[in-house]
């Protein structure tokens, strides 16, 4: 009997091994292609969902209209492709609510909580979504024909209506009122450099109060009113706060904006109701109250109490430079932000 040569047997075994290796290589290539496609699709979905959330939140801020916010978010989503197809986001995948900063700087979203300041968007390329699942090139080889990525994005706008309440009693005459005017200019200039136009109103008081500027995005009106103001008379902080309250309540709906009042005085309340009475009314209307005392004769204890009732901060300035720094700091905390 003639035997097969060992070299031929080895060559046959090598061919089988090469065939197996080629098959494994092809499977690895197919797997790599699909994995790359999955990563790309996930990134594109994340980008499109983020863009839709930001657009919806910006529109909500501008229009205070949920339907318009959804429509704008859908337009921006469709302008972004995922695996070559426009991303279609149903209206039901837009959720409105409120985000609040937690310890550590993170924001927690609560659906349907007012005032609304956030839009959460669910971006999907799943089998039951309008855009469908992402088909894989070689999925059938691996037994998986499609990929179903999901992304969530929350965009937050913190809009505020702000009313400044300033003291124009007789004790503010001269250098003090000039320092206050400079500090208000700093406040206005700081807000003008923030991304979104906050609306600001101005009330002033001595023993009587006036509504000097209604809420406006034209902050030049604030500085103009300060320039036209005259000082003199006694001090009724509560009447000034009531005038500010009237301005605030004529502004935008509290369902869509944060409300903040900044009350400044250099003296002691000596006319009208107790300021804490008005502070409680403002707090019931969800108005945050910051207070500023200026100079050595100001009633720090009473103004601290007002700030505590209003959930805000109390600041004290001994001189004009410190007063400017305080108004700048407050303006920076009021700026509108987008968080995800």
UniProtKB/TrEMBL annotation:
<dbReference type="InterPro" id="IPR036465">
    <property type="entry name" value="vWFA_dom_sf"/>
</dbReference>
<dbReference type="Pfam" id="PF00092">
    <property type="entry name" value="VWA"/>
</dbReference>
<dbReference type="InterPro" id="IPR002035">
    <property type="entry name" value="VWF_A"/>
</dbReference>
<keyword id="KW-1003">Cell membrane</keyword>
<keyword id="KW-0812">Transmembrane</keyword>
<feature type="domain" description="VWFA">
    <location>
        <begin position="161"/>
        <end position="330"/>
    </location>
</feature>
<dbReference type="Pfam" id="PF09977">
    <property type="entry name" value="Tad_C"/>
</dbReference>
<dbReference type="InterPro" id="IPR018705">
    <property type="entry name" value="DUF2134_membrane"/>
</dbReference>
<protein>
    <submittedName>
        <fullName>von Willebrand factor type A domain protein</fullName>
    </submittedName>
</protein>
<keyword id="KW-1133">Transmembrane helix</keyword>
<keyword id="KW-0472">Membrane</keyword>
<dbReference type="InterPro" id="IPR050768">
    <property type="entry name" value="UPF0353/GerABKA_families"/>
</dbReference>
């Amino acid at each position: 009997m003639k035997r097969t040569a060992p070299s031929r047997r080895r060559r046959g075994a090598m061919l089988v091994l090469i065939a197996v290796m080629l098959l494994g290589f092809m499977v690895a290539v197919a797997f790599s292609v699909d994995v790359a496609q999955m990563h790309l699709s996930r990134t594109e979905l994340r980008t499109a969902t983020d863009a839709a959330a930001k657009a919806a939140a910006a529109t909500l801020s501008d229009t205070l209209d949920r339907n318009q916010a959804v429509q704008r978010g859908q337009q921006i989503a469709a302008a972004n492709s995922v695996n070559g197809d426009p991303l279609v986001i149903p209206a039901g995948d837009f959720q409105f609510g409120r985000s609040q900063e937690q310890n550590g700087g993170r924001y927690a979203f609560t659906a349907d909580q007012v005032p609304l300041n956030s839009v959460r968007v669910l971006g999907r390329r799943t089998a039951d979504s309008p855009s469908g699942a992402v088909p894989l090139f070689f999925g059938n080889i691996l037994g998986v024909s499609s990929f179903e990525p999901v992304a969530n994005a929350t965009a937050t706008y913190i809009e505020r209506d702000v009313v400044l309440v300033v003291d124009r009693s007789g004790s503010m005459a001269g250098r003090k009122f000039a320092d206050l005017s400079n500090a208000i200019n700093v406040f206005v200039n700081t807000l003008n450099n923030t991304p979104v136009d906050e609306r600001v109103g101005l009330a002033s008081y001595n023993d009587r109060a006036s509504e000097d500027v209604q809420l406006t995005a034209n902050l030049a009106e604030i500085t103009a009113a300060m320039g036209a103001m005259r000082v003199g008379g006694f001090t009724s902080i509560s009447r000034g706060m009531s005038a500010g309250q009237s301005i605030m309540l004529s502004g935008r709906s509290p369902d869509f904006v944060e409300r903040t009042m900044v009350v400044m005085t250099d003296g002691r309340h000596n006319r009208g109701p107790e300021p804490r009475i008005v502070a409680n009314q403002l707090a019931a209307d969800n108005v945050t109250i910051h207070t500023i005392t200026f100079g050595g004769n100001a009633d720090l204890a009473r103004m601290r109490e007002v700030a505590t009732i209003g959930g805000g901060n109390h600041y004290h300035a001994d001189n004009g430079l410190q007063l400017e720094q305080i108004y700048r700091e407050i303006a920076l905390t009021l700026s509108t932000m987008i968080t995800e």
